[in-house]
Structures
1.
Amino acid sequence: MIRRFYIGVLAAWIGAGTALAERPEFLAKRDPAQVRLLCYNVNWDSIFPDDDPLNHKWRKYNCAAAFVRVLKAVAPDVVCLQEINQTRPVQQVATILNRAVPVDPDDDSRLWQAYLGQDNVIAARWPLKMTASDTSPPTDRGHAMALVDLPDDRYAADLYVIDAHFKSGGGAENIARRVKHADAIVQWIRDARTAGGNIDLPARTPIVICGDMNVYDNDARRHLFTLVSGDVADEQAFGADILPDWDNTVMGDVLPSHNARGAEHWTWRDDTTKFNPGPLDHVVYTDSVLRVAHAFVLDTTMLSDAELQAAGLEKGDVALDLAKGEFDHLPIVVDFVVPGRGEGEAGAAKRGDGRR
Ligand SMILES: [Ca+2]
Ligand SMILES: [Ca+2]
Ligand SMILES: [Ca+2]
């Protein structure tokens, strides 16, 4: 204890002397074994160069350099993007990740794996298995779905990820389409949890459903309710209600705050419209087998110049054009404790088995 006190005094003295900027504490993973998910609607192909011939016709902004800074600052393990042109070779996304946040800086044979479904890309530092883009029955929207094959010697389970982009827009027709996407995902999870059909997951495989769900404050938000509760709206087409989690309970919904500072939860804003900022993007997960250790919406606009400098970020990195006050979606970061690893000393000690 005394030694810790002197180290603290020494650190404070060095800190005061050199005025070293501290990397904002909220950016760090609490335990290297936790699996860090980055979920980000990047606004149509903004992460690619201006002259890329595969840029989507709706591309308007170049956020390529900002995206790389965000990647380096948050160092994700699994990345779920939306609004990537679906005609693009998904390798282009893996290449950006390999350059910005290499899987192993000392071994360039280990590369990011990526899979594209509709306009969604799942990428991971580990192999992707059981990839699929359509639920069954399909709806007018595909997703990117994959089992992230975590190393068996370190984790007791793999991680199944559904990266979705629900239909946007108000009005009865768009709301109905969003509800259909959610019904179909619940049906897919029912299938995944039971033998036969299109997909079988080993029991208690952690499941994450994330993405731009276009959850607005001025419609019924029925689709989010369906994803979390398993209450299917159209049971004729998509089967009976289920309690979607492995222990037959509802799912968790992370709802992180800006920079983990607790005041704001919106993930989207556009001040040129009449709409309020809101949490349009969600990360829904099986909280029976996954624990959220830490989560935040990255908001560079709220960081001090010293924090930005220490983190290698710029103030406008999560905006489309900060000078014009133009925003779209912000990045969401969630650190999951996957069974077998990432609970830290306290978790292992509490279990009493020393397993880490
Ligand atoms: Ca099945
Ligand atoms: Ca129902
Ligand atoms: Ca649950």
2.
Amino acid sequence: MNIPVFDAHCDTILEAKAHGCGLRRNSLHVDLERGGLFAPYAQIFAIFTRPWPENVDWKNIDYSKDWPAEVLVPRCDELLKYMLSEFDKNADILTHCKSSDDAETAAKDGKVAAFIAIEGAELVGCDLKRLEAACGRGVRFINLCWNFDNALCGAANGPTKSGLTRQGADYVKRMQELGVAVDLSHASERTFWDVAEITKRPIIAGHSNSKAVCDNARNLTDEQFKALVSLHGVAGINLCPDFLNESSDAGINDIMRHIEHFLALGGEKAVCLGGDLDGIDCPPKGVAGIEDYGKIYNAMLGRNYSEDLVRDIFYNNLFDVLERVL
Ligand SMILES: [Zn+2]
């Protein structure tokens, strides 16, 4: 397919490990063979973990207290080892990338460009030593928090909606010195503004939609999105039905509404893909997995967007940010 895809967020590694099915070919939302149909295909694979039982009811989770670091850190470490072993196993079709140059080389070689993210700095203990160690092992993106407040900041779904702590400000500074991208999806609005004030580099919200289109705590206000535009960052369009449409019958038209709203705010260079695939129970109608990004691409062309603009959203915008961040 002559369609480029660079997706800023999937949770496939947790699912692949849980099901023992690996990354190459599976029945999850994302695998390397289906993603590899796009040319080029780059993917940020997130590490996410919480020790909940299977079939947890997400709506009833109490976000007021998180699991302790002694539980989360070893689990994250296990997942990182699994991720790296999957990357090794599939080295004939995948390159573990740490920079935009690496992604360019992978594209030339016809390979999947794979980056590693950690979804929630608490998974690496919120401390600088572990941050440096994670960076040394090839992690290039960290969400400051997930749905729980942590030592660095308040979360969008946390109880306090507080901002960046002093420890959080030091952490952001060190991330940017190391060339690790700061991802503010899941952060509270106050955290977002606190980071926007001190950041030395573009910031990203790798899987967050528009709050004006769908009023959900995880989505970005127009002011936040405009700040991303002026900081030369990006927001990744999340395919979670609850973040697309308040009545939960989301389809490709709703994806278009978020993209169109962001474009109306001057986001031609600030919108990218951030599907949250394998992190959501069920994608919107018409989308079964990564293979259906082609449908969204064609839906945009069908609305008379120029192919250049669609290719920017599908690939170039995120790539350009990485060039300035990593
Ligand atoms: Zn997430």
